[in-house]
Amino acid sequence: MTAAADLDDTKHRTDRVPGRYHSSQRALHWLVVVLVVFQFLTGGQMEAAFLLRDVQPLNLAGPVWVHGTIGLSILAAMLGRAGLRARYGAPPPPSDEPRPVQWLSRGTHYAFYVVLILMPIAGLVAVLSGNPTIAWAHGVTAYVLLALAALHVAGALWHAFKRDGVATRMLGRDPAEKDMARTD
């Protein structure tokens, strides 16, 4: 089975709690959100340190270490999310959702996986090699990530406005999961 097949939304193996992501998927989703927001808030320090590397050696302590450690944590969390996605699948889209919207949603989610796995790797390679092209690609990818996040939040807000249940798939704990937590 290929990685793409493992992430296929058509498997819908969340029938244990229909229409919701598994609690571990939700936990990792919100962990990644917090870590990514932190990276955006502190990323400027990394950029400044990298730009000054010709004047002063890149100090791998302080902001560089923190940014790198959080980046590798994002990588680990995303690999965990991919494994959980392969195990539990994803809830099906609403039956009345137009096909193009389903494709956009699926494409956005796959793009998140690609960006949030490759970006930390590129950052690590940029720091270890000192390659400015890789550092530039890592930085530009942050804008791609920002665009994906804006699209994702807009979609979540749209679904919250429609009240079709999609926006709540990553929120809270479903009472039905309390009983299932004992069987996991």
UniProtKB/TrEMBL annotation:
Major subcellular site: membrane
Domain of life: Bacteria
Any one GO molecular-function label of the UniProt entry: metal ion binding
Known cofactor(s): heme b
GO biological process: respiratory electron transport chain
Record-linked Pfam families: Ni_hydr_CYTB
Cytochrome b561 bacterial/Ni-hydrogenase domain: residues covered: 20-172
UniProt subcellular location: Cell membrane
SUPFAM superfamilies hit by this protein: Transmembrane di-heme cytochromes
Family per similarity comment: Belongs to the cytochrome b561 family.
UniProt cross-references to PANTHER family, sorted A to Z: BLL0291 PROTEIN, CYTOCHROME B561
Protein name: Cytochrome b561
High-level lineage: Bacteria, Pseudomonadati, Pseudomonadota, Alphaproteobacteria, Rhodobacterales
